[in-house]
Design a protein that fits this description.
Elements lengths: L3 E4 L5 H12 L3 E6 L9 E4 L5 H15 L4 E4 L14 H29 L2 E6 L3 H4 L5 H21 L4 E8 L5 H4 L3 H8 L10 H11 L11 E4 L8
Parallel strand pairs: 1-2, 1-4, 2-3, 4-5, 5-6, 6-7
Helix pairs in contact: 1-8, 2-3, 3-5
Catalytic activity: a (3R)-hydroxyacyl-[ACP] + NADP(+) = a 3-oxoacyl-[ACP] + NADPH + H(+)
Family: Belongs to the short-chain dehydrogenases/reductases (SDR) family.
Keywords: Fatty acid biosynthesis, Fatty acid metabolism, Lipid biosynthesis, Lipid metabolism, NADP, Oxidoreductase
Length: 234
C-alpha cells in the first residue's frame, strides 16, 4: 500500500535521490523546495523550514493531496563555512536554525499524525562531519551532531507508538556541491576515504529506503554511516 512520504529539500542532490527511490518503491512522495520546479512524479511544496507558518501550510497541502505523512525524511540543510574567529553570529545561528531547528519543526508536525496512527518512520540526514568535525565548519558540524541526540531522544519518546527515528550520516558524496571543488581538493578528500571514492546519491537513498521499510521495524535510535569508511570509530 502506498504511503504518504515527505522529503525536505528533495528537489536536488541526495534529497532528490531519496525521493525518487521511495517513489519507485510505490510511495506517494512530496518534497519541499524553496525555488525551482519540482521534478516530475513528485508533489512539490514551497516551504522554507525556518518559517513555522510555511511548515504548517506545507503539511496541510500534503495532507489534502496524499494524506498524513507516514514517512518523514528530514534532509534540508545549508552550509555557511567560515573559520571560527571569522564566523559571525548570523553565520552560526542561520545554519543551526535550518539544519537543527528546522528539522525540529518538520519532525514535530509529522509526529502529530504518526502518534494518532500509532506508527511512523522518521529518518534524519546528518553528516560524517557531525561525527568527525571539520575545520571551517563548526556551525555545520554542531547542527549535524545535534541531530544524533535529537533522534535518539525521539526514539525513546516515540518508540512505544511504533514510530522509529534513525539517522543516516553520509560521507563525501558526488553532488553539484562537491563537483564545484577543484581537482586537487577532490583528490585530497578521496585520499581520506578507505574505499577510495566518492559516494553516490543512490547509495544514500538505499540506506534511507531500508530504514523506512517494514524490514527495519526493529531499528531505532541508530546512526547509519554511508561514508566509505571515513568515520570509522565514531
Amino acid at each position: 500500500m502506498s504511503r504518504s512520504v515527505l522529503v525536505t529539500g528533495g528537489n536536488r542532490g541526495i534529497g532528490l535521490a531519496i525521493a525518487r527511490s521511495l517513489a519507485e518503491a510505490g510511495d506517494n512522495v512530496a518534497i519541499t523546495c524553496r525555488s525551482g520546479e519540482p521534478p516530475e512524479g513528485l508533489l512539490g511544496v514551497r516551504c522554507d523550514i525556518t518559517d513555522p507558518e510555511q511548515v504548517e501550510q506545507a503539511y496541510k497541502e500534503i495532507e489534502e493531496k496524499q494524506g498524513p505523512v507516514q514517512v518523514l525524511v528530514a534532509n534540508a540543510g545549508i552550509t555557511r563555512d567560515q573559520l571560527l574567529l571569522r564566523m559571525s553570529e548570523e553565520e552560526f545561528t542561520s545554519v543551526l536554525d535550518t539544519n537543527l531547528t528546522g528539522t525540529f519543526r518538520v519532525v514535530k508536525r509529522a509526529a502529530r499524525g504518526m502518534l494518532r496512527a500509532r506508527r511512523g518512520r522518521i529518518v534524519l540526514i546528518s553528516s560524517v562531519v557531525g561525527l568527525l568535525g571539520q575545520a571551517g565548519q563548526a556551525n555545520y558540524a554542531a547542527s549535524k551532531a545535534g541531530l544524533v541526540g535529537f533522534a535518539r531522544s525521539l526514539a525513546r519518546e516515540l518508540g512505544s507508538r511504533s514510530i522509529t527515528c534513525n539517522v543516516v550520516a553520509p560521507g563525501f558524496v558526488d553532488t553539484d556541491m562537491t563537483r564545484a571543488l577543484s581537482e586537487e581538493q577532490r583528490a585530497a578528500i578521496v585520499g581520506q576515504v578507505p574505499l577510495g571514492r566518492y559516494g553516490r546519491t543512490e547509495e544514500i537513498a538505499a540506506a534511507v529506503r531500508f530504514l523506512a521499510s517494514e524490514e527495519a521495524a526493529y531499528i531505532t535510535g541508530a546512526v547509519i554511516p554511508v561514508d566509505g569508511g571515513l568515520g570509522m570509530g565514531h
